[in-house]
Amino acid sequence: MPRQRLETEYQALRGSLIEFRVEIGGLPALPERPIDYEGWFQDVKKRIEMRSEKRTLIEHVEMAKRFNELHSQWLQLAHTNYELSRVNARASVEDAKIKLELKEIEVEMEKLDAQLSQLRESKLAKPRQTSEEERLRGVFHRAETIATLNRIQKEEIARHSDDPDVQDIITRIADAERERIVEGRK
After folding, report:
1. DSSP-H helix ranges across the chain
2. Is the pTM of this model over 0.90?
3. 149/90 same-domain check
4. Which residues are CB-contacts of 150 (< 8 A; sequence separation ≥ 6)?
5. How many domains does the chain fold into?
6. Residue 158 lies in domain
7. Is residue 166 part of a domain?
8. Has residue 27 been placed in a domain?
9. 145 FRET partner, CA 20 to 30 A, in 50, 53, 69, 132?
10. Predicted confidence (pLDDT) per residue in 140-178, tens digit
């Protein structure tokens, strides 16, 4: 039940209560807020019970019946209002959960994008290093003496002075080739 319809029904109930108040007479003024009606109904019930001693039984039963109908109508509207507030609260919780899940997905997507960029960068860098590494292995493998190997190592390190990763590869290859020369392997 939309809020606007609920408000319309509260206004209709208020009109009926005003008529009831005029009809019975001597009842307290209606509260401004619907939430305060419960206390009003309790007060009116006590007043009706006190008046019943002065009225006929038929008048009392009719008045009590009308009162009970109005009180029941108010209770139904209050219950509907409560249920609507619960639905809205649940919807707010669900909205918050959805927003959280979307944020988690967004963060995960950012992480995946970063990983993808990193992989692409490393893939682009590796082929150059791999082919460079193969070239260096060939150059160092042709060296037959340690002196030649040391000269090639110095030249290659100087040539790649701006790339410490390639310099590390040069040193690693030179060390392996040095062992090969010392052991006398081909």
Report:
1. 3-24, 37-52, 57-141, 146-159, 164-183
2. no
3. no
4. 174
5. 2
6. 142-183
7. yes
8. yes
9. 132
10. 888 888 898 899 999 999 998 998 888 899 899 999 888
